[in-house]
Amino acid sequence: MKIAVTYDNGQVFQHFGHCENFKIYETKDKKIVSSEVVSAAGSGHGALAGFLQNHHVQALICGGIGGGARVALADIGMELYPGVTGDADASVEALLEGTLAYNPDTMCSHHHHAEGHDCGSHSCGEDKHGCAGN
Known about the structure:
Elements: E1 2-8, E2 11-12, E3 21-28, E4 31-39, H1 44-54, E5 59-61, H2 67-75, E6 79-81, H3 88-97
Helix pairs in contact: 1-2
């Protein structure tokens, strides 16, 4: 089974649609047998499901993810584990052990802003925590 994790500097990246790298793990008998970091730069929101499908990924661990991406992943039969934070490798090991802490209801919204959060404070290319635009 191949498992992908939204990836940034060893951690689960928190915005699927802005993810530039995925770490893809090949697993067998509930063990990681290999892994590689793969660049998805330039793929954009709409193409990421196809990108993962082209890499034969069957499950995705991520932080936040929007409704459109959820539908695209469901359409290709991808298992989804959103709402995960922390170390990417440890997250995959926890999934394989059946102990992954995730929130199936986690959603990113491009129009919702947490109290005290101002999208105007972001620079171009920064992690926008769900804010639209690049």
